[in-house]
Specification:
With 176 residues, this protein is an alpha+beta fold. It has one domain: NADH Oxidase (3-Layer(aba) Sandwich), CATH 3.40.109.10. Helices cover 35% and strands 19% of the residues. It is built from 7 helices and 6 strands, in the order ααβααβββαβαβα. The strands form 2 sheets. A 4-stranded antiparallel sheet has the order 1-2-6-5, with helices on both faces. A two-stranded antiparallel ribbon has the order 3-4. The chain starts with a helix and ends with a helix. The structure holds flavin mononucleotide. The site of flavin mononucleotide has 13 residues, from α4 and β5.
Length: 176
């Protein structure tokens, strides 16, 4: 599969078939995510991987809006976080206006790698931003020095999803 094939195959999937995925597959995803670049190679991204059926059920209750329904039969939920006040900071002082935005940036880069690797492995994903961070923190005892980012559902699709349209290149890019 070329990178174009992988990107075309990857879609946000909101209906899973309940087929389990192995610990080895989950470790492969995280290891590949680690290959993403990060600010001064500080690698502040962290992963809290929920794969037991009982804890998945509890974690789904920490998702907001209609996301609990959308994650039905997911094989795993990965709560992604980053250790804050490190990236984009020197001695605890922000290096520029980005501040902890750079920690979010690094986490997003790693998460993108994870999504693409999953697609290559025929696994499907959904990035979930509408979630209750405090509930997830309490459930999984996530340390206070970690900012909670997206939750990523991982599983196998029931059916293909349509590609939502993308903006025109002229709308998003300017060449100088
Ligand atoms: C940061 C982020 C947060 C998102 N949060 C949600 C969410 O809470 N619920 C949901 O159903 N989809 C969520 N999505 C998925 C987007 O809706 C989806 O990526 C977009 O519609 C494009 O579709 P595609 O991923 O199939 O290309 C999120 C995506 C990103 C990157």
């Amino acid at each position: 599969m070329t990178l174009n094939d992988i990107a075309a195959h990857r879609r946000s999937i909101r209906k899973y078939n309940g087929q389990p995925i192995s610990r080895e597959e989950l470790e492969t995803l995280i290891r590949f995510a680690q290959e993403a670049p990060s600010w001064k190679n500080m690698q502040t991204s962290r992963y809290h991987i929920v794969c037991s059926l009982e804890t998945i059920a509890a974690a789904r209750q920490c998702l907001g809006g209609s996301n609990p329904q959308k994650t039905e039969n997911t094989a795993a939920l990965i709560v992604t976080t980053f250790k804050h006040d490190i990236v984009g900071h020197t001695n605890g002082i922000p290096d520029n206006e980005g501040g902890n935005g750079w920690g979010w940036y690094d986490l997003g880069l790693q998460n993108a790698y994870l999504l693409l690797k999953a697609a290559e492995m025929n696994l499907d994903t959904l990035v979930i931003g509408i979630r209750h961070a405090n509930q997830l923190r309490a459930l999984l005892q996530i340390p206070e020095d970690e900012t909670i980012g997206a939750v990523i559902a991982v599983g196998h699709r029931v059916e293909d999803a349509k590609r939502p349209p993308r903006k025109e290149l002229d709308d998003i890019a300017r060449f100088y």
